[in-house]
Amino acid sequence: MKLYYSPGACSLSPQIVLQESGLAYEPVLASTKTHKLADGTDFYAINPLGYVPVLELDNGARLREGPAIVQYIADQVPHKRLAPANGSFERYQLQQWLNFIGTEIHKGFGPLFKPNTPENYKPIALEALAKRLQWVDEQLAGRNYLLGDEFSVADAYLYTVSRWSKFVGLDISGMKNILAFQERMGQRAAVRAALAIEGQK
Description:
Elements: E1 2-5, H1 12-21, E2 26-29, E3 54-56, E4 62-64, H2 66-76, H3 89-113, H4 122-139, H5 153-162, H6 165-168, H7 176-186, H8 189-197
Parallel strand pairs: 1-2
Antiparallel strand pairs: 1-3, 3-4
């Protein structure tokens, strides 16, 4: 398998999950600025939408969108318990979190990374994000991970996007549960390995 990624992007989430899975894969750097690979290949030929992550299977089939990719990876190694079993209520709770993180948090950061976003809109975007993250902080009270005591693929996604707060000036210093969650995640060997691949800290 190949994972097309860009450092600091949401592709860190499947990068973490692949490390947790123990599956063999090749990380392939895809610049979100030039949209080219190191060998000059046009990334649009791999993903016409131009963004990461993309998971390419050994048979050439490709899967886009982080929430789909991380569930696919988890289902290849069910004994690792990276996601609850398909068809279980807990699996739908996982999908609930993946959808919430994707639509309410991930997308909320988008305007703050775009240079053409009007300055007077940024405080509105920051306030909306802070409210969503505050709610997540409340949900993490008394639990190690989003689904309880065990890590799941949703945690990799939350860890990835919540780290973006430091790049856009979003103060989460009062969100003690999220900060503890980030610290807990940062101690996982898979997270450290994924960050090392991407040249991040």
